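Re: the 342-residue chain
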Amino acid sequence: MATKFNIHQTIEALLAFTKQAKKQKSGEAKEILLADENDQFEIQVSVWIVGGTRTKTVPIQLPHNMYQKDRDALLFVKDIEKKRPEFTEQHFKDLLSDKDVEGVSKVMPIRVLKREYRPFEARRNLARSYDLFLTDVKILGCLSDHLGKEFYKRNKYPVAVDLDKKDLNKEISRAISAAYINLSNKGSCSSVHIAHTGMSTQDIGENVEKAINTIGEKIHGGWDNIKTIHLRTNSSVSLPVYTNLIRPDWDLSKTTPHDLKNEDLDNLQLQLKLEATEKVKSLRKKRGLHPSEPLKLKKPKTGILFNAKPMTGLTRKEKKAATKTMTPRQKRAQSKLREEIV
C-alpha cells in the first residue's frame, strides 16, 4: 500500500532540526540563519526496477526560484566555420544579444572543446568553472564523447536548448532556472536539490510537490515503480514523504512459511547431520575403507575452462613449449588439476 505523508509537517520538522543543528555546531543561539548558511533541500527517490539504456536527465520547472545567486552557464554551439572558431563564437554572441538573452556567461564552439580541452586536467577545470552547461540540441549526441567522466561524476550533464526558437530568451531562461534530476540506469536511487532553508515553508512545499509530481510522471514505470521518496537537508536525516512497499504486480494470495519454532529448527539441524553422516558412510563403502581409516578427499574440479590433463612424463622444455600458447586463465586451470586436499 502506498502512503503519503504531510509534506508541510515534514518541512517544518526538517527546518527545526537544521536550525537546532546549526546552533549546536556554532555554539551560538541564532534566531535567523544567514543567507550564506542556507542548507539545500534534497529529494531522494528509490525505485523498484531500474529501466532504460542510459541516464535520463529530467528538467523540473519549479514555481519558486531555488538558486540564491545567478548561475554561471556555458553554451556549447556547433561550428559554422571549423577553421574560424572566433567567427562562430561571435556569431552566437550576437544572436544572444539580439534576443536579449541573459544568464549565458560564455559561448564555446565544439571545435574549441575538442582542440583546447583534450587533456584531463583542462576538462576537470572546465567542469568546476560553471554551474550549468547548455548545448545546442543539434550537437547533443556527439558532445558526450568529448566531455569525459569529470562532468558526469559531478552530475553536470549538458542540457539541450533549441537555438532556433523564436522566443530564445524564454527557452534559455527556463533551462537555467530549472532543477535537474538524473535518473540513472545503473542504480535504484536518484536525488535532486529543489529548495533551500532560506525560503518560506509555503514556497518549499510548492517546490516539493511540483518536483514529486514531475518525477512520478517521467520516471520509468511511473508511480507504480516508485518505492520511496525522502526529503532531507545537508545537516539532517532523511524523512519519508511517500512510501510504496508493496508492488501492484505482487500476488499476495501466495504466502510463504516463516517464523519457524525451536523444535522445527532442531529437527532441521538433526536432518542435516544425518544426511552428512550417510554421505560419509557411502564414500567409505564405495572405496572399501575401514571405519578407523581416514577418508581422503580430492579438491573438486571447479572453474575448469577447458578439457586438460596434467602434463606428466614431459621434460621442462616440452612443458614450456606446451604452455606457451596458453592464456593466464588456462594456466591457472591447468595448475588446479595437480592440486589435492588431504
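The radius of gyration is 32 Å.
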